[in-house]
Design a protein that fits this description.
The structure holds two protein chains of two kinds.
Chain A lengths: L1 H12 L3 E5 L2 E10 L3 E10 L2 E5 L3 H4 L11 H13 L3 E4 L5 E7 L5 H19 L6 H18 L5 E5 L10 E6 L6 E7 L4 H19 L7 E8 L10 H9 L3 E4 L4 H8 L1
Parallel strand pairs in A: 9-10, 10-11
Antiparallel strand pairs in A: 1-2, 2-3, 3-4, 4-6, 5-6, 7-8, 8-9
Chain B lengths: L8 H5 L1 H9 L2 E3 L3 E3 L9 E10 L6 E8 L6 E7 L6 E7 L3 E3 L11 E2 L3 E5 L5 E5 L15 H11 L2 E2 L8 E3 L26
The chains are: A alpha+beta, B alpha+beta.
């Protein structure tokens, strides 16, 4: 009996891994993800404070999954774990979300490793659950976001944000400040796996543009772009929506043909 | 025992051919130059170089994907049209530790950090293995660049060149500088404000 127990303890213990990483080090933990990976945390000392972080890996997609932050149910799940494990967040200069905990008490580092690693495992695994139809849309946002990130410097770029704090009610997929800093271009991502979802996506985008029109922040807007995922829906089915958006001085661009124009407009 | 790992019935049935192909001497087009942006994945670069062998398994090639322009974050795949999954072997280098969820592997051996190579086992499961000679606790794994990776892959799979020189590899992304910046420490340069203690 005892031998079986000792074997269990040994096997679990042997899953821990250490890796040198410059000024920090990586701890490979026994916490799994359903994407066939083990969770890592990164430990750094800053002014006598021990910081345990996810290394930005959740947001960077290292765990082979992007968080469905469009989904309210998922956001509640994430907020629950974030609060339950007292996780803090910050953003790196290149725009990635970092999740962390810190302490001045060296004895408590294992507690932090436990909390951060379990938290990562939980938010990654729950992100894999199919929440209605939103994964198609989410993949498109990630894809479009990656394209924009590659061509627009992070200091000019905000995702899922309002134009100004004075017009908080209206949110846009991407808010890109001009090089001169005196105007913004807005991008909404239009996607969905079927006609109804795409229609809803147009409606939501339009609602946000209309809301913005009612505020003084609308004077800052140079370009109101719609980036449309046309990989699942034939363009002609979308024509009534596209015509309407043009009448409202929005610029509809198709993912399959409009990427270059998008980048020119954001330059 | 339930396992989610990838399993190929074709490789299981023709495992002897698979083994023979891996061991056989192979010739790759050299130099292998990676320069194209990957379709549907603009943060990666991807190219292929064809491979010939006396023991062929379909049309073979070696493929390379380099992520985020990093010399330390990439995969080399040994591919063929012989099996549906296309990939016969794959070297993964970069962030993330693989969990071998395959029947019969003791728990303590399921955790496989990078760099690691995926090969088929005789029952058709695709399993990740550590690379001999690497000290996984040092910073050697985060400095295993694509030159080292390609050299390892060619050695492991017996891939050479027509004229018996070592196969050459270059990364030449169009119009961009290829800086050998190590992204070893993800926390570097990030501010972590103190919480209420």
């Amino acid at each position: 009996m005892r031998a079986i127990f000792e074997n269990i303890k040994h096997a679990f213990g042997a899953l821990w891994g250490f890796r040198a990483r410059g000024e920090s080090f990586e701890v490979i933990t026994p916490f799994p993800t359903s994407t066939d990976m083990y969770v890592s945390v990164f430990i750094t000392v800053r002014d006598g404070r021990y910081v345990v972080t996810d290394g930005g890996w959740v947001d960077k997609g290292v765990y082979h999954c992007s968080l469905p932050t469009e989904n309210n149910i998922y956001n509640r799940v994430f907020a629950f774990f974030e609060e339950d494990y007292c996780i803090s967040r910050t953003t790196s200069a290149d725009g990635f979300m970092y999740l962390y905990k810190s302490t001045r008490d060296e004895r408590l580092i294992p507690n932090l490793v436990f909390d951060v690693a379990y938290f990562i495992s939980a938010v990654v695994n729950t992100a894999l659950v199919q929440y209605r139809d939103e994964t198609v849309r989410d993949r498109f946002r990630t894809k479009a976001g990656t394209l924009i990130r590659r061509h627009v410097s992070a200091d000019r770029l905000r995702f899922n944000a309002p134009v100004s704090p004075l017009a908080k009610a209206a949110h846009f997929g991407a808010v890109v400040t001009s090089l001169q800093g005196n105007s913004v271009s807005l991008v909404n991502f239009i996607s969905g796996s079927n006609y109804e979802n795409v229609r809803g996506s147009f409606a939501k985008s339009n609602f946000n543009y209309d809301l913005l029109e009612r505020t003084s922040a609308s004077r800052l807007v140079r370009d109101k772009i719609l980036l449309i995922d046309d990989r699942h829906i034939a363009a002609k089915e979308l024509s009534p929506f596209i015509e309407m958006s043009k009448e409202k001085n929005q610029s509809p661009l198709m993912w399959s043909t409009g990427q270059e124009e998008l980048l020119e407009r954001l330059a | 025992m339930c396992a989610k790992a990838k399993r190929s019935a074709m490789v299981r049935e023709a495992y002897k051919d698979y083994e023979a192909n891996l061991a056989a001497e192979k010739i790759v087009d050299s130099p292998f130059v990676v320069q194209s942006i990957k379709q549907n994945h603009p943060s990666s670069h991807y190219d292929e170089a064809s491979i010939t062998s006396a023991a062929p398994l379909g049309e073979m090639c070696v493929a390379c994907e380099i992520r985020n322009m990093s010399p330390f974050n990439y995969s080399f795949s040994y591919k063929t049209d012989w099996i549906d999954d296309r990939v016969l072997a794959r070297l993964d280098v970069g962030d993330g530790t693989h969990n071998n969820r395959v029947p019969g592997i003791p728990l303590e051996e399921t955790s496989v950090p990078t760099p690691h190579i995926h090969l088929y086992r005789n029952d058709g499961y695709f399993v990740a293995y550590r690379i001999d000679g690497i000290d996984y606790e040092s910073d050697e794994p985060v400095k295993f660049d694509y030159y080292k990776g390609y050299e390892y892959l060619c050695g492991r799979l017996n891939i050479g060149c027509e004229n018996h020189t070592p196969p050459a590899f270059y990364f030449q992304p169009s119009g961009r500088l290829n800086l050998m910046v190590s992204d070893a420490d993800p926390n570097e340069g990030v501010e972590f404000p103190a919480e209420n203690e």
